[in-house]
Amino acid sequence: MFGGGDGAAHPVSFEVEPAYEGRRRLSGALRLVLAVPHLLFAGGPSLLGMVVAPLLILAGIAPLTVPLTVGAIGVVAALATVASWLAIAITGRQPRDLREVAVFYLSWRAKTVAYATLLRDEFPPFGFGEYPATLTLPPAPLARDRFSVVFRLPLLLPHIPALAVLNAALTVASILGWLTTVLFGRYPQRLYDFSASVVRYSLRVEAYLLLVHDAYPPFRLD
């Protein structure tokens, strides 16, 4: 359930080259500081923040929650998703440029989250670029499921409690991984595989939320 499977049964997959041993202790110790430039653009590992922060900023409440939850590009992607939702609901089609905004954001976000959660030590590229943690997204659907698009947020409600629990567990796993990385230069394999699986699950749900595709995300971590 938790291993490093590629999730081939679902069109969205997240693969990371395992890095259990020989970890960079200094880079690990300073990881959150080093990740800030990317967090400001792509945000951190939290779907709840991704959903709530744009609403808070529109209401003028707690604008500083945005940089570390969804990032600047995440706000743009959220606005593009709203425009996509309207276009699909009315015409049944999604403008290509609007989808590409979400694809760009998610691709960058996957690398940022992998780096921030210590799955990899290499500093990620800004935007698109080669990295040993990659997100694979399906091609643009030829026909959209207008019903699932119109009711996308209600359909995602069952995933919210699961994501809340899993993100809390990911935080604990990342802290333990940080300690072992800094002290011993290694990340325990079970913790590592669990963290990678939670990131995979979260990215699938986020891709569904951002209308990249219409395949409902499964309740599993593989």
Question: What is the helix tally?
Answer: 9
Proportion of residues in β-strands: under 5%
Q: What topology, given as strand order, has the largest sheet?
A: 1-2
User: What best-fitting shape do the alpha-carbon axes yield?
Assistant: elongated
Explained architecture:
The protein is mainly α and 222 residues long. 58% of the residues lie in helices and 4% in strands. It has nine helices and two strands. The chain has helices at 25-29, 31-42, 47-58, 71-91, 96-116, 146-150, 152-156, 159-184, 189-209; strands spanning 13-16, 133-136. A two-stranded antiparallel ribbon has the order 1-2. α5 (96-116) runs antiparallel to α9 (189-209) and α8 packs antiparallel against α9 (189-209). The protein is elongated and about 55 Å long. The protein starts with 12 loop residues before the first strand and ends in a 13-residue tail after the last helix. Mean pLDDT is 87; it is low at 1-7.
Short description:
With 222 residues, this protein is mainly alpha-helical. The protein has helices spanning 25-29, 31-42, 47-58, 71-91, 96-116, 146-150, 152-156, 159-184, 189-209, and strands at residues 13-16, 133-136. α2 packs antiparallel against α5, α4 runs antiparallel to α5 and α8 (159-184) runs antiparallel to α9 (189-209).
Could you name the key traits of this structure?
2 strands; about 220 residues; two-stranded antiparallel sheet; disordered N terminus; mainly alpha; 9 helices; single chain
In terms of topology, how is this protein built?
Blueprint: E1 13-16, H1 25-29, H2 31-42, H3 47-58, H4 71-91, H5 96-116, E2 133-136, H6 146-150, H7 152-156, H8 159-184, H9 189-209
Antiparallel strand pairs: 1-2
